[in-house]
Amino acid sequence: MAVRLPRPHRFDVVAAVGGLLGGVLLWGIGLGVRPADDPPVLFDGRWPVLLPLLVMAGCELLRRAAPRTALLTGTAALALDTVTRGSVVTLIMFTDLVYAAVLYGTPAAARRVPWITGLLTVAATVVPFALWRVPEALLIGVGVGVVSFAPASTGLIVRNHRDAALAARLHAEQTALLAEVDRTQAVTAERARMARELHDMVANHLSAIAIHSTAALSLDDPDTSRQALSVIRENSVAGLAEMRRLIGILRDGSGDREPAAAPTLDGLDDLVEGARANGLDVTLHADHGTVPTPVELAAYRIVQESLTNALKHASAGPVAVTLARRDGTLDVRVTSPYGHRDGPRAPGSGAGLVGMRERATLLGGTFTAGPEDTSWTVRASLPIAEGDPPE
Prior knowledge:
By secondary structure, this protein is α+β, with helices and mostly antiparallel strands. 62% of the residues lie in helices and 10% in strands. A hairpin with a 2-residue loop joins strand 2 and strand 3. Mean pLDDT is 83; it is low at 253-259 and 386-391.
């Protein structure tokens, strides 16, 4: 199976071609690392210089695609160049291979190459000086450091800056992504809250209007129709006021933008009276004491929606509302007659049960609703945080 060589980068091709042409130019004019009157080398003459030059130019093609292979092959070519007359261009291309091996190589290579070249530089400085005891021997270490350790250190510095910039960009992208997720979640939560509030504020009035308008249309009794129309008018006026207030809050620059005061459990008596005016036989038993505002609002809305559902769906009979504080929780229980009916007095969407369950869940409580014997029972257990005012 043939091995497919990595495709060189465009800049690497330019570096390889430029290095090869520059080396050939210097070779053509007879400029090498060693002058002609130096001691003879293993491969004397002009032609042996071209082989390491050609190999080093080929390594330049792989400086980015395969930096480890390029450095190892380039090291062998440099060793071969040292036993010829030598070429300055071959030496310069080797320094670029060391730089590229640290910059583009693996993290392990980026750590090892500077250490290895640093040790070689120290050894090339200490050993010749220890053997010859002349200051000129130190220049060997300087040369090795310039050719190997300096480009390796430069590559490590550039790589660290590049990695830091990449990490900063990734962090910025993650922060932007988290901000977008938070924004989406906030919008979703706000839409759910608005849906619950709109349903709880208006559904009760619209249900009463639908039920009493049906009665007014089906009964040919002027007194009954008059009473039904009175109830319809009261609920339509109250529902319209709630809608205007909600629209005023949502719209910027027009309408009453001040939110209505949140209902409290002290308003349960008025809520029950309104249910009685709509035809329900409601009894209220409340022993809740002082509870936090979020729990108070949730309990009020659950009772309100339960009475609305009883008005639409319950059979004839008493409706019982009970609130009691027990063991750090506020228990809400609403029971209404449950039996077979031809259909609801007013159409429903099922959003009421969803909204009640969401209110209880947001507070960490529980919610159940369903038939029990001959009654439909709504139960909610709402936790009360420690440290609340006592009853």
